[in-house]
Amino acid sequence: MDAKTHWEKVYAIKAPDAVSWYRPHLETSLALIEGAAKSRSTSIIDIGGGESTLVDDLLARGYTALTVLDVSPTAIEVTKKRLGNAAEKVRWLSGDILEIEMEPHVYDLWHDRAVFHFLTTPERRVAYVRKVTRAVKRGGHVIVSTFGPEGPTKCSGLEVMRYDADSLHGEFGSHFRLVESSKEQHQTPVGTTQQFLYCYCRVE
Ligand SMILES: C[S@@+](CC[C@H](N)C(=O)[O-])C[C@H]1O[C@@H](n2cnc3c(N)ncnc32)[C@H](O)[C@@H]1O
Fold first, then answer.
1. Whole-prediction pTM
2. Considering only CA atoms, which residue is closest to atom 4 of ligand 1?
3. Ligand 1 centroid to 69 CA: how many Å?
């Protein structure tokens, strides 16, 4: 099953606050983004934004150059509907991150929470890193969050990879300078915990 078919099925049956990765606010992402993106005109792309409230919170903080990409048109529509008129201030991209054409060096900041860990073959990870390298400006910021070493081995019925800071940074390579990393115990809506890892890199 391709990524679009899989994620469309997930979002067709699950409420936004019922998926295991749901949190009312992505506090760690927000803190890292606000720390990195000092100007409110910083060009930010959220990869696999899904139905998360990150875009709402970034708009509320005054960010004006936001793009949200997701392979699921349903997730994008739900988020747009929630935002109402404010959705017009956001650029929406519907497509698979590995397939969609990315413009060269247009983003100052790339954010991905819980997408990269679904790439379980080296070829797919290399293709993803190529997209980041093409799309992000030199000196730009890359914030990627995956399951940590003690995180789950599956999510949403799919196999996932688990990373520590060294192994995740190793996937990106020396053009990416690791600035900081942290782990988070995420509480799922059913009360279990999942370990997430966050890495923040600068593009050299
Ligand atoms: C686990 S959810 C995380 C959603 C959101 N980032 C969050 O933290 O709440 C993964 C999201 O990535 C999207 N996704 C998965 N594979 C993708 C791909 N290859 N290209 C683009 N989006 C993808 C899914 O549709 C889903 O919305």
1. 0.98
2. 50
3. 9
